Amino acid sequence: MTAALEFREIDVSFGGTFALHKVSVGVHEGGWLGVVGPNGAGKSTLLRTVAGAVRYGGSVLVDGEAIDGRSQRERARLVSYVPQRPVYPQGMAVFDYVLLGRTPYLGTLASESHEDIEDVWEALEALRLTDFAGRDVATLSGGETQRVSLARVLAQRAPIVVLDEATASLDVAAQHSVLELIDRLRAERGMTVISAIHDLTAAAQFCERIALIDDGRVVAEGTPGEVLTESLLGEVFEPSIRVIDVDGSTVIVSLRVEEDPS
Q1: Total domain count for the chain?
Q2: What is the pTM of this model?
Q3: Can you tell me the distance from the alpha carbon of 31 to that of 88, in angstroms, rounded to the nearest whole number?
């Protein structure tokens, strides 16, 4: 089966030092791949290759065809990319920000069509944001701005969604709400999702497959049960990590290690 999105032998280096080396991983249509690993492992760098935001060796493929060398507009018709810290233009209304998702489909100097406007309202309604349409994005809470970013993704109508730490700045309740929303939209719209996730418990509970990255290389790839084990996580993070079952859900914690007073 051809992967909807595939990274093949990806190399990225900065100043002669590899940030990623021979990274190969993919996600099938309609799936959710979580990319996890310690800070500086290369998670964000990997996702940025999809947007063409970094120079890389190897290939990024969509439905088996390389997107290397394609324009930003062409890439945006295939993949929606939400960076770790989206930039919200000063004074921009929610409606206008979501409307930016239609940019890849507009010709030079062309204005938005009636269909584009309908797509924006549909996205706002799906994210329960219609009452926020005229609000300045800068006045919204963290959870609300995350929903606005997802509304822009829906308006863009790309089949693949790439999220870089989409919930990193949210509290536990807001994080869970956004991830539930992503999962629901994935099921309803048949979207394929790949996301860098800092919270290992969230990765275990929401992602169908996991890629564990350390020092720019894929250490393990498979189902959450195969990858998020105490032995693997202990090697990559720290040996005090514990994987616990709570009412059928996986919870991953790091225990405090008492120092030997001697």
Answers
A1: 1
A2: 0.88
A3: 29
User: Do 228 and 204 touch, CB atoms closer than 8 A?
Assistant: yes
pLDDT tens track for 149-200: 989 988 999 999 999 987 777 778 878 888 888 898 899 888 999 999 999 9
Tokens of 55: 């120079």
Instruction: Looking at the chain, list the stretches that DSSP marks H as alpha helix, in order from N- to C-terminal side.
Output: 43-50, 72-78, 94-99, 114-126, 142-156, 172-189, 200-206, 224-227, 230-236
User: Residue-wise over 183-202: b if at least 16 C-beta within 10 A, else e?
Assistant: bebbeeeebbbbbbbbbbbb
pLDDT in tens, 89-113: 889 999 999 999 998 988 665 678 8
Does any domain span residue 260?
no
Which domain covers residue 60, as residue numbers? 5-254
Q: Give domain status of residue 97, yes or no.
A: yes
Residue 226 in 3-state DSSP? helix
Q: Is 251 helix (H, G, I), strand (E, B) or coil?
A: strand
